[in-house]
UniProtKB/TrEMBL annotation:
Pfam assignment, any one: FtsJ
Enzyme class, broadest EC rank: transferase
One GO cellular component term noted in the UniProt record for this chain: cytoplasm
InterPro entries with a match to the protein in the record: RNA_methyltr_RlmE (IPR050082), RNA_MeTrfase_FtsJ_dom (IPR002877), rRNA-MeTfrase_E (IPR015507), SAM-dependent_MTases_sf (IPR029063)
Protein's gene: rlmE
PANTHER family given in the database record: RIBOSOMAL RNA METHYLTRANSFERASE (PTHR10920), RRNA METHYLTRANSFERASE 2, MITOCHONDRIAL (PTHR10920:SF18)
Top-level lineage group: Bacteria
Catalytic residues of the enzyme: 169
Protein name listed in UniProt: Ribosomal RNA large subunit methyltransferase E
Length: 213
């Protein structure tokens, strides 16, 4: 599902402008130095520093995990007494402490396989940094994005323990207010996060639901 990784990017990944920005991005450089698979690691690290979502012993699911930077961060933080379950439509290289399934989250059979991996253990946390493959049509792409977000919220509803938390990337625009209202019906508090590692021009923000009802 982070198959689906690039969303509403104004510049093509092959464009000179994108390449220049990418190569000179301090978070890209830090990720290479620190051994993270993507700059997105710093988004989760910053949010976790503020909200203390992941700690030793945490049981969590990482939806849309490839290439694996969020799973890398999570596996280090949960330690040997915790567990990370990860899922993506793309392959992901092995990470110690992470149980991974490759498949399309939209397919019932893949979801069943993932649920079998959990073994009926209620989760403390669900994290989700996925976005759909882009068609170039903003209306269609926004609708596809929120369809995935709805599926992730359903998963959180079914597998989080009472009091659990849910962190998801969303894009401001059509569907945002409705999705926010839906999260507020499931969690006692819902907050927005825009970590420094999130590019300013991006419409992405993170919604954090705490204390599942």
């Amino acid at each position: 599902m982070k198959a689906h990784t690039v969303f509403m990017v104004q510049r093509s990944k092959s464009s000179p402008a994108w390449m220049h920005e990418h190569v000179n991005d301090p978070y890209v450089q830090r990720a290479q130095k620190d051994g993270y698979r993507a700059r997105a690691a710093y988004k989760l690290l910053e949010i976790n520093e503020k909200d203390k979502l992941i700690k030793s012993g945490t049981l969590l699911a990482d939806l849309g995990s490839a290439p694996g930077s969020w799973s890398q961060v999570a596996a280090k933080l949960v330690g040997p007494s915790g567990q990370v379950f990860a899922l993506d439509i793309l392959p992901m290289e092995r990470i110690d402490g992470v149980d991974f399934i490759q498949g399309d989250f939209r397919e019932d059979e893949v979801l069943r396989q993932f649920e079998n991996l959990l073994g009926n253990r209620p989760l403390d946390l669900v994290i989700c940094d996925m976005a759909p493959n882009m068609s170039g049509n903003a209306v269609t792409d926004q609708a596809r994005s929120y369809y995935l977000c709805e599926l992730a919220l359903d998963f959180a509803r079914n597998h989080l323990k009472p009091g659990g938390s849910f962190l998801i990337k969303v894009f401001q625009g059509a569907g945002y207010q409705e999705y926010l209202a839906e999260m507020r019906s499931l969690f006692q508090t819902v907050q927005t996060r825009k970590p420094d590692a999130s590019r300013n021009r991006s419409s992405e923000i993170y919604l954090l639901g705490k204390n599942k009802r």
